[in-house]
Structures are given as structure tokens and as C-alpha cells.
TrEMBL record:
Domain of life: Eukaryota
GO MF, any single term: diacylglycerol O-acyltransferase activity
Species this protein is from: Aphanomyces astaci
Protein name: diacylglycerol O-acyltransferase
Keyword Transferase: yes
């Protein structure tokens, strides 16, 4: 008999009889692995109401909320210019189709503590306001008046103001930093 094979056989035999607990422990481990695999399929949960998302605010995103003052809001402001008049209804329809994927779930959620909570009756139209400028006012002056207006914490933290001037539509976007990572 080959000496290396004999050493292997004696080693293999020794490992099986090394402890009286080897077989019961192996069996328990196998059952645990099997149950951990089957458990998600065996347990059915009702769909949650006011669902809390798994992803929480980042530390930086939370800091942007906690360190805000009346004159230093953590709100991103952007102006998009469209070269035609777009109705609120058209824009609402476009945004509804775009905000449905899971990627934009934060835009349909409000901040509660450190978590984003999905707003079940979310409606894009609630976040869009059409504004008529005074004859003496231009778009940038109106945008400046929005700069230090806080967002409503009872709603998802973004707002869109539409302004029509001549044959153009100006979209004044206001988004809180915490909708992203708080750093961008």
C-alpha cells in the first residue's frame, strides 16, 4: 500500500471519529443553512403601509438638514430654459412617467428622522407651481425671491416653479441636498 494513501485514510478516519459531536453538529448546520434559504419563501408579510425605505439618509445628508438656518438653506437651485411654451399638464405627465422607477423613490418620499418614507398618495402636480411674472419683474429676480424660502418638510423635499416668458418656459428647480448624498 502506498504510504501517502495510508496516511490519508488514517487521517480521514480520525476526523470522523474525533468527536461524538461531529455528526450532530454537521446535521444542525445543514438544517440551519437549509432553513435560512427557505425562510424568505415560507414567511409571507403583508405589504407595509407608510413603508420605510432600506436606505437611510447619509450622515452628510442628515447634516445638511440639521445645520440649516433661515439664511443658509441646503437647497440646490437650477434654472432650465425650454425654447417653447410647455403646459403644466404636459410637464406633470412627463415627470410622472420618469419618477416611477425605484431610482427616483426619494423624490416620492419625505424625510422622517433619518429615513425616507414613501408618500403613498404622491402626486407630481403638488410640487409644480406656475407663476406669472409682473411686467417689471424678470425670471432671475423671481428666482432670487425663492432662494431663502424653506421647503415643506411634510412633503418630498423638492419644488418646481414654471414661468412662461415670450415663447420660452423657465423651470426653476429647488431640490434639497439630502435627496442625493448631501455632498454633490
Amino acid at each position: 500500500m502506498d504510504t501517502s494513501l495510508a496516511a490519508f485514510e488514517s487521517c480521514q478516519h480520525a476526523s470522523l471519529t474525533a468527536s461524538p459531536w461531529t455528526v450532530p453538529v454537521t446535521f444542525c448546520l445543514a438544517v440551519t443553512v437549509l432553513l435560512s434559504y427557505l425562510f424568505p419563501f415560507l414567511v409571507s408579510k403583508p405589504p407595509p403601509t407608510n413603508r420605510r425605505l432600506k436606505r437611510r439618509l447619509t450622515t452628510t445628508g442628515l447634516t445638511t438638514l440639521l445645520t440649516e438656518t433661515d439664511t443658509n438653506l441646503s437647497i440646490l437651485f437650477s434654472i432650465t430654459v425650454l425654447d417653447k411654451i410647455v403646459s403644466k399638464e404636459t410637464l406633470v405627465a412627463q415627470l410622472r412617467s420618469r419618477l416611477e422607477p425605484a431610482f427616483f423613490v426619494r423624490f416620492r418620499s419625505r424625510v422622517v428622522g433619518r429615513d425616507f418614507c414613501l408618500v403613498e398618495d404622491f402626486d407630481v402636480a403638488d410640487h409644480i407651481t406656475v407663476h406669472q411674472l409682473d411686467t417689471s419683474q424678470d425670471v432671475h429676480e423671481y428666482a432670487e425671491t425663492l432662494n431663502n424660502v424653506p421647503l415643506d418638510m411634510a412633503m418630498p423635499l423638492w419644488k418646481l416653479h414654471m414661468v412662461h416668458v415670450n415663447d420660452q418656459t423657465f423651470l426653476l428647480w429647488r431640490l434639497h441636498h439630502c435627496l442625493g448624498d448631501g455632498q454633490s
